[in-house]
Structures are given as C-alpha cells and as structure tokens.
C-alpha cells in the first residue's frame, strides 16, 4: 500500500488549537467498523456503548515538560531539545533543532546555566544523546524550565499545562500525551465504574513515533520508533477474564491498542510484562486483543490513521473523516473523539 492512499484534505480551521473548557463536552462520532454506519453523539454518551463486565483500558503515562529552549555555550545560537527517552541516569535521547548545530561535545545551557546538556553522541534524523548536568532534582528543574511538547500544528499557547495531561496520568515518561484520554473526567470515569465496567491502567511512554512523519512511499517500508510499555499482573488477569467471558476490551487510544496487541501477539494471552514495542499496525492486520477503540481524528498519511483503518477499513474511516469535516468536528490532539465499535 502507498502513503497516498491515507491522505485527505483538511481545512486548517478544523485543527483544534486549544482544549475545550470542559474535557467531556467534545463531540463523539460512533462508527460501526463492520458496516461503516455513523452516529453523531457527545462524549458522555460513551456510557451507552459500555456494558457491565467490559474492560476499558487507559494509558496512565504522564507527559514530561520535555521541550527545552536553550543556547549553545560557544556561540549563543538558540537550540531546542525535546527529551524522548531516558537511557540511563542523566543520559537522554533527544530530538534537536537545528540538529546541524549540535555535534559531539556541544554544550547547551538552559535557564542561565541552571541546567546544561552535553552531547555524547550524534544519531540520524536529528537525534542526539545528551548527558544533563545540574544541582538538585532533575524533574523539578524540568518543571521550572521545560514546557509541554505540543505538536507542531498547534500554534496557540497552552494556558493550563495540565490540559495536556489526562486526569489519570501517573507514570512520568512521555514526550506526548495519549490524547484520546484527554476527554475523560474523574466524574465520567466514576459513572463508567458504577455501571459495572472495569477500568484497567497500562503504561506506554509515547516517544518519537508520534512526531515522526512517514517519509516512505510504500508504508511497509516504514519503521516505527521503539517505545516502552508495562502491564501489571492484576491487569493481565482482568483482561484474560474479560476475554474468557466474551466481554469487550475497549482500548482508549492507539497507544493502549499497540501495547495490548504487542502483548497478545507475543504470548497469545495477556501477561505481566515490560519491554519495548515498535509494532506498526496497518491494513490488513488481524486484531487479537481489542474489541473497540476510542480515538481522536488523526493527521493525513499518519501511522495512527493507518492503525484505525486496519481496525475498521480504509474506506469506512476516510468516509467517516469526510462526515466529520462536513459536521465541523475538531481534529487532532485537542479535537473531538471517535468510537469505533
């Protein structure tokens, strides 16, 4: 399949620049993955599609304020770092702009020297390995000097940094939010539990894969960036029980989906495990783990659009996107939601 098969036209005015005042007031499109039929709802209506004994799976990763703007000590040139992955201790894999200005040995200073980063290794595609030098607690310094790494299509300043976190974010380590989860409030999650629906938390730390566009013509040639995941024993037991009882496993977001499918492909059951996944899901793919998917509306030609196309069909998804455009849905990270059932 070619990348152009996953393209569509979108007016820029439909790209959500800011979150809605209330998280759960977003629209919800409900797509039947088997026949392509569409319903237009609002996010709290998600309750109507969840049944007692189903399990809703949420990614509890927490976004680091991972974007740092500093200057080269030698030349004072402005350098931007995006922290992607903690390799060990104070050593991090980072995406750098402009990468051509940063060579091995380059020192970048932030906050008048409160934090410094020394380049240890140059890698491809603008990636560098840095060691960070500081006094104090690294995460506290990052909270002070860093900002949320909003995607490049968002041009408005985020007034409240917590709005780029889910209300259940816990395990710090992501370079981007699992945005399908941004629609949930604590009150809505309580209502879901009161209905007898199980809520399970897994972790996948979102990394470069989110920022990296597909640059090949044939999608089969694309390589996903590896990301860390973890599933606990209690969650594995719950998911196996849900499957055995023939109830639904509803993944919230493509990150939860990729984690669950990775584990099921590896073991043919859910197990307590941690590791790194570079699973790339595109049509045709036989899903082994999930029954339904809650997700946002994704960028043209993106791996996320390919994943949802694999779950339903490319034709149904692209038709649903045209319906969303006609009905003025808000797109991408701060946009509206879709349930594919």
Describe the structure.
Helix 5 crosses helix 6. The chain has two domains: 242 residues, QueA-like; 79 residues, Thrombin, subunit H (Beta Barrel). The mean pLDDT is 96. The strands form three sheets. A nine-stranded mixed β-sheet has the order 2-1-17-16-14-3-12-13-15. Helices cover 19% and strands 28% of the residues. It is α/β, with parallel strands linked by helices and 341 residues long. The two termini are 25 Å apart.
What keywords describe this structure?
single chain, QueA-like, globular, nine-stranded mixed β-sheet, 6 helices, 2 domains, Thrombin, subunit H, six-stranded antiparallel β-barrel, 341 residues, alpha/beta
Helix content: 10-25%
- What is the CATH topology assignment of the largest domain? QueA-like
- Rough outline: globular
Question: What oligomeric state do these chains adopt?
Answer: single chain
**Estimated radius of gyration:** 20 Å
Please give the domain count: 2
| Stretches with pLDDT under 50, minimum 5 residues | none
Average of per-residue pLDDT values? 96
Major sheet: 9 strands, mixed
Counting helices, strands and paired strands, the structural category is alpha/beta
Q: Strand order within the widest sheet?
A: 2-1-17-16-14-3-12-13-15
Number of strands: 17
CATH superfamily of the largest domain: QueA-like
Helical segment tally? 6
Q: CATH class of the largest domain, anyone?
A: Alpha Beta
Helix-strand sequence: EEEEEEEEEEHEHEEHEHEEHHE
Beta-strand percentage? 25-35%
Query: In whole angstroms, how far apart are the ends?
Result: 25 Å
Examine the secondary-structure arrangement and name the CATH architecture of the largest domain.
Answer: 3-Layer(aba) Sandwich
